[in-house]
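Translate structure to sequence.
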């Protein structure tokens, strides 16, 4: 941690190192909210907090800059908490441990939380940098972005006064984002019938680990391996050829992450253990060829597993595996308006055996078109129907329609060009940004999103590029100093 003192901009990295010490997974942002309020009090900054937990801290205009437009800087307070199953970490109590080396900052065995901790740190550095000459700056910190965007959804009119917003939640330096996808979750809840473990059966645990995983929006087009899909495929083979029965099947953790691990407990005749191991060996050979480039760490293991309880009825087991094998995962449509942009996708995010013979399957749909989002959700629901039970769809969040005539886009492009002597790319993003909600709730608001380069978001391999963070800071501060008059 002390090596952060070597990094520049110094204030930004110092704030980020402090943020890493504070647990702040989605829906548990109490500590970071309290810390921010204390920060505002310590620096004599005006602040307010709404009933949802969103916080606004204000930097008053520098002398002579009172006539400039008010700019809103926006980030989200929560982070995705992902770790490998064998890594000890309590997300409600333990700090993230950042590691600095070479060109990147990463974390020890967990997500880093640069998404969007670096945005928070930038806002705090802006709020306390007396050398900057800016108009009024409102720093908006929203809650619960990663698990439903409820902070943005519940934001009330009048909480801020500006009509120009810079979102600090993008992950590709050199790209200015002016649009994003909308999204919804489709969640299936089902009951299943059971049967007792037959005499002469032996129980095993199968684990699929070491997958790359990734952001279910930004990286859905990369055709990364999905642990739930792989396990379903393997279990189908083992059940068909070895008369195996399923006891448990749990894979994936988060709605907005491509699942990296899956675990299943099965029972099969002791005499068929060789079938299990041969089918697994054959399966591993096949998937290594398919995903060797995208998921080089893929691992499949079988261990003896004591299990006391009932097994899933064979008929319901077959229905479940058929549904999971048929359930789509990945790109459903590409944009015709913007080359290379995913228009519609779906992520088979997780399956959980919840106890009391209940199963929950979580999927996430994204689209830049409302009709595409509905189509994807309806498709998933129709595939889940054979399981009975219920499929519910979240209210979701809207997309953000690009505006190529945006004043803040023009100002940011000109500033980027003058700073770095190169033209930034202008794109929409398939991930969901809170800008989509602001676009709908606050008609006429002018917005842009940019940030430093972050790789592996929503996975324990998350890392942030140091050089790009300096460029991000230079662009942000230069842009604030050039804000036009009201």
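Result:
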């Amino acid at each position: 941690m002390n090596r952060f003192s070597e990094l520049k901009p110094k204030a930004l990295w110092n704030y980020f190192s402090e943020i890493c010490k504070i647990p702040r997974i989605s829906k548990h942002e109490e500590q970071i909210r309290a810390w921010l309020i204390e920060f505002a009090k310590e620096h004599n900054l005006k602040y307010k907090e709404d009933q949802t937990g969103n916080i606004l801290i204000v930097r008053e205009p520098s002398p002579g800059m009172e006539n400039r437009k008010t700019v809103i800087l926006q980030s989200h307070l929560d982070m995705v908490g992902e770790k490998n199953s064998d890594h000890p970490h309590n997300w409600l109590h333990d700090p993230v441990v950042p590691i600095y080396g070479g060109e990147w900052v990463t974390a020890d065995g967990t997500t880093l939380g640069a998404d969007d901790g670096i945005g928070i740190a930038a806002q705090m550095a802006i709020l306390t940098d007396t050398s900057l000459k800016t108009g009024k700056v409102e720093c908006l910190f929203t809650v619960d972005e990663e698990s439903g965007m409820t902070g943005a959804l519940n934001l009330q009119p009048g909480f801020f006064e500006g009509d120009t917003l810079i979102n600090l939640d993008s992950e590709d330096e050199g790209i200015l984002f002016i649009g994003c996808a909308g999204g919804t979750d489709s969640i299936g809840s089902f009951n299943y019938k059971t049967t007792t473990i037959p005499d002469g059966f032996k129980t095993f645990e199968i684990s699929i680990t070491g997958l790359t995983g990734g952001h279910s929006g930004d990286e859905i087009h990369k055709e990364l391996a999905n642990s739930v899909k792989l396990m379903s495929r393997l279990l189908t083979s083992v059940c068909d050829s070895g008369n195996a029965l399923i006891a448990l099947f749990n894979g994936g953790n988060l709605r907005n992450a491509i699942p990296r691990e899956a675990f299943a407990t099965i029972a099969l005749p002791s005499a068929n253990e060789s079938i299990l191991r041969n089918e697994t060996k054959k399966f591993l050979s096949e998937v290594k060829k398919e995903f060797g480039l995208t998921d080089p760490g893929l691992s499949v293991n079988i261990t003896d597993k004591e299990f006391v309880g009932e097994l899933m009825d064979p008929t319901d087991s077959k229905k479940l595996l058929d549904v999971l094998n048929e359930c789509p995962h990945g790109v459903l449509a590409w944009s015709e308006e913007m080359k290379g942009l995913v228009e519609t996708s779906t992520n088979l995010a997780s399956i959980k055996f919840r106890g009391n013979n209940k199963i929950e399957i979580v999927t996430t749909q994204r689209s830049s078109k409302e009709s595409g989002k509905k189509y994807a959700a309806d498709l998933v629901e129709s595939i889940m129907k054979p399981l009975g039970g219920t499929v519910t769809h979240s209210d979701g969040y809207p997309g953000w329609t690009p505006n190529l005539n945006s004043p803040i886009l023009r100002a940011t492009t000109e500033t980027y060009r003058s700073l770095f002597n190169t033209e930034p790319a202008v794109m929409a993003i398939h991930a969901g940004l809170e800008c989509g909600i602001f676009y709908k709730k606050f008609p006429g608001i002018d917005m842009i999103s940019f940030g430093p380069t972050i790789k592996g978001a929503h996975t324990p391999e998350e890392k942030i590029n140091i050089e790009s963070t300096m460029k991000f800071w230079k662009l942000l501060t230069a842009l604030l100093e050039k804000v036009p008059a009201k």
